[in-house]
Design goal:
This protein is α+β, with helices and mostly antiparallel strands. It has helices at 2-12, 20-26, 38-41; strands spanning 48-52, 58-68, 80-88, 96-102, 106-116, 121-129.
């Protein structure tokens, strides 16, 4: 349970760009929490996304699941949820701030946390905890 509390505390901290290059990439979307709503991600499950680092290198991932944060007083909340992504093991990205890009959604800076390294795919989690 302490892990969930720590994760929630981390999720409440505003995302800060990891470098000047990341800030430049994120500038158009900085502070745009309007993109970070569950209903915008729901139709994009199993669709491709990219994590873009501070030097512009991209890593291809797939959005696999969207789930409630725990405990969640309002299941299905549009402003508090978890996004799970999977990517190839050939390019594992470390925990950090990346620009999350998707063709239909646009770009927004997020904190990406690797949460598993299965034999064939790497799992990443993004926590969305917008003030509401």
């Amino acid at each position: 349970m302490a892990g969930a509390a720590t994760l929630a505390a981390v999720a409440a901290v505003p995302v800060v760009a990891a470098s000047t290059a990341a800030a430049a990439l994120a500038a158009p979307a900085a502070g745009n929490t309007a993109l970070l709503l569950r209903h915008k991600f729901t139709p994009l499950v199993q669709q491709p996304f990219q994590f873009i680092d501070g030097v512009g290198a991209s890593t291809n991932v797939t959005l696999t699941t969207i789930s409630d944060l725990s405990p969640e007083p309002s299941p299905g909340s549009d402003v508090r949820f978890s996004l799970m992504f999977e990517g190839a093991t050939s390019r594992v990205v470390p925990q950090g701030t990346y620009v999350l890009r998707q063709r239909a959604l646009g770009s927004v800076p997020v904190l990406v946390v690797p949460v598993g390294l299965p034999a064939t795919r790497v799992r990443y989690q993004v926590i969305v905890n917008n003030p509401g």
